Structures are given as structure tokens and as C-alpha cells.
Amino acid sequence: MDNRFTDIIQIIKQSRSNAIKAVNAELINLYWNIGEFISKKIEKSEWGDAVVKELANYIQQTEPEIKGFSDKNIWRMKQFYETYKDFPKLSTAVREISWSHNLAIFSRCKTIEEQEFYLKLAKQENYSFRELDRQISSSLFERTVISNSKLSTLLRQNNQDVTTTFKDSYVFEFLHLPEPHNESELQRGLVKQMKDFILELGKDYIFIAEEYKLQVGNNDFFIDLLFYHRGLQCLVAFELKADKFKPDHLGQLNFYLEALDRDVKKEKENPSICVLLCKDKDNEVVEYALSRSLSPTMVSEYKTQLPDKKLLQQKLNEMFDNENSESS
User: Fold this and answer.
1) Model pTM?
2) Which of 201, 210, 234, 228 is closest to 311 using CA atoms?
3) How far apart are CA 284 and CA 270, in angstroms?
4) How many other C-beta atoms can be found within 10 angstroms of the C-beta atom of residue 75?
5) Contact 216/262 with Cβ under 8 angstroms?
6) Separation between Cα atoms, residue 235 and residue 206, nearest integer Å
7) pLDDT digits (tens, 9 = 90+) for 86-113
8) What distance in Å separates the CA atoms of residue 239 and residue 243, rounded to the nearest whole number?
9) What is the DSSP string of 106-128?
10) pLDDT at 29
11) 52 closest CA partner among 25, 78, 13
12) For residues 274 and 147, what is the distance between their CA atoms, to the nearest angstrom?
């Protein structure tokens, strides 16, 4: 590599890092201001709780290109403001980490001391969301308080690049940019091929989204592929796993099914369907998750209009082989 230009590369990376931080800070500031506005309106009884749903619908209808303003996320903004409004010394810290990081901290930490601890930790260590979530789950705050110790130097060796830290779906939605995928190249290739295959099955399938975001409480989950089936008049979600089948996968499928029916399905639509496709080097597994409320007649109707499991297994095997041959 030509060492003459390494300084220029460093300047570019630093400017890019500064730009990402600035956009993130503006996004957090926006969410804070919206949360403050709504909180004060409700506090003065000028607005009722139902207005948040009306606001989310209004944004969707009048400015459909603006993303990140579902009723759930708007309620999160209100909670965010109300959590920190009496602690101005933390106002800078919350703007130095991503919205997903903030969500994890103010929704999972019980005291302002714990929230401050993780705010500072996330900023100091440039934690990815996954690493921050792991530290909260491992009760790092409680262990640090009990031992009366400072953060170990070992933690500091795990620093993430700042572009990874701020690679947040909300930032990309705010800028109206496509979000870069985090999955492996193999997983991404499988998702794209499966999308094309489902659309080739017939006109009944209408594509809705890749990486469809489900907001459940203060957590976000992403479905690989979401379609609408015109014949069955229901949502059909596909979840692909480029690894061996595990029973936990079915639990995830049923969780998605319940969330889709509760939060996404329209009143006159039929219960949703989730399809799990797993492929490892030995075999392919295809499983359907259906609502327990379906009558035997509806179950039969669903099964006649859904792709046969053997056909999906065959296609999954072909897709897997194609991806492996292209990468070799």
C-alpha cells in the first residue's frame, strides 16, 4: 500500500466520523424536542393520548417518505424527554450515542445513576448496540457498584469504530437513505434470491419490505421479508437462517406472528403467516407458523395456497449452492 496517502485517508475518515456524529446529534435533538412538545401538550390536557396515533397516521399519509415516526417511536420520544428532563447534565451524553443505544438505556435501566453509568460507558467505549446490550444484560453496573471498582482496562481494548457505533437504522431513515445490511454476504444473497423466487410464484404475492421493522415495547426486530398475499388476504413473513435449525427459531417465528397480528395486520385482513427457512450444509428445514385462532377450514385454505414445503426446500438448496459456488 502507498504510504504517501495514508494521512489523506485519515482526514477523510475523520470528516466522515464528524458528519455521522453531527447527524446523530441532530436526530436525538429532534426526538427530544418532539417528546417535549407532546409531553407538555398532554400535561396541559391540550392533547389526549390518542393524538399520538393520529400524529403518526398524519405523518405517514402526508409525508410517506419520512420514516421513524410510528406511534410507538413517538411515545418513546415522550418517554425519552420525561426520563432526562430533570437532569440537564446528561443532555450532552444522550446526544453522543445513537437512538438505539438510548432506547436500551432509558428503557432497561431503573435508576438515573444506572442510566448515567451506561450513557458514559457507551460514549467512552464506542460500544456497538450489541455490546451495550450485552453489558446491561450482564449487570455490569451492579457488579461495578458492588466491587467499588473502576472500569477495567480490558474493556477499553474492545473499542468499536465510530461508524459502526452510529450505524443505526434511525439515522438512515432520518436521512432518507437505504440502510446498509448487517448480515453476512451469504445471508443477504439468500434473502434477495428468496424474494425474487416468491414474486415468481404468481401475482398473489405483493412485496412489502426487506428487513421490515417491528417495534415491540422499546425494542426493534427485523423480519427478513414481508409480503401480502392477495388470495389469502394476509401478511406472509419469511425468515431465513443460514445455519442449522434450532427450536428457538420457532419461538422467534411465533413472536413475529403475534406482533404482526397485533400491530401491523389491518382489521379486515386474515391472521398472518410466518415461514421459517433454515439451511446448513446437511439439510433444509421449512416450517410454517399459523395463528391458533384459525379454524381447520382456514388452515386447509392457507396450506393449499402457500408454497409446498418440498418446493421451498428445493429452492433453498439451490440458492445455497449458488451462493457458495459464486463465493468460491
Assistant:
1) 0.65
2) 201
3) 28
4) 18
5) no
6) 9
7) 998 898 899 999 999 999 999 899 899 9
8) 12
9) HHH--SHHHHHHHHHHHHHHT--
10) 94
11) 78
12) 46
The C-alpha cell 410464484 sits at: 201
The contacts of residue 96 (CB under 8 Å, 6+ apart) are 21, 25, 123
Chain position carrying cell 399519509: 61
Type of residue at 169: S
Q: Are 311 and 275 in contact (CB under 8 A)?
A: no
Calpha distance 27→175 (Å, rounded): 9
**d(C-alpha 190, C-alpha 225), whole Å:** 11
Helix (H, G, I), strand (E, B) or coil at 24: helix
Rounding to the nearest 10 degrees, give the CA dihedral for residues 123, 128, 132, 138.
Answer: -140
CA atoms within 13 A on the CB side of 293: 7
Q: What does the pLDDT average to over 184-189?
A: 63
Q: Do 315 and 209 contact (CB within 8 A), yes or no? A: no
Longest Cα pair distance anywhere in the chain, in angstroms?
Answer: 72
Cell of 70: 410510528
pLDDT of res. 148:
65
d(CA 193, CA 318): 10
Task: Give the residue-averaged pLDDT of 220-224.
Answer: 88
Pairing state of beta strands 273-279 and 234-241?
parallel
Q: If we measure between CA atoms, which residue out of 125, 171, 128 comes closest to residue 152? A: 125
Q: Which cell is 193 given?
A: 434470491
As given in the structure block, the three cell numbers for residue 281 are: 450444509
Measured CA to CA, the distance from residue 11 to residue 284 in angstroms comes to 48
Q: What pLDDT does 105 receive?
A: 94
